[in-house]
Amino acid sequence: SSDSGGHVPLYLACKAGHEEVAVLLLAASCRVSPATSRGHTPLYAASYFGHAKIVSSLLAAGASVDRRTQSGATALYAACANGHVDVAVALLAGGAQPDCAVQHGVTPLWIAAKHCHLELVNLLIAAGARVDRPNEAGVDPLSIACHEGHVAAVRMLI
Q1: What CATH number should be reported for the domain whose range is 98-158?
Q2: What global pTM score does this model have?
């Protein structure tokens, strides 16, 4: 069952960080990757809100690691936009592609550099993210870090 926005019980448990509930639902063979009307999956919700243990459980149950929302965002992008290093580590270990871009060409590295999430910048570079990949406006991660005045991120990106 789901509400009017397509939020199924597993999605709600993952979004709220209720690990034990999510594990029970997964054990009861709930579909692991149902999407809301906006294309958000339980994995995306858990990643966005920083619930690393739930992310690992979902990946172990077969969640699609690079599934995109309507705006093109992946779980890795959500984790990087919100500074969730432990979630990003789990997603990359689960096979997430470090350069999956959302609409307008913004990558996880670009958004991590914009917000000066230094551990994520380092992690994504180590995972093979392209430091020279620009968004659709031609702005690359180094340029956005410079624009925002993030000296430490600039050091990592040059």
Answers
A1: 1.25.40.20
A2: 0.93
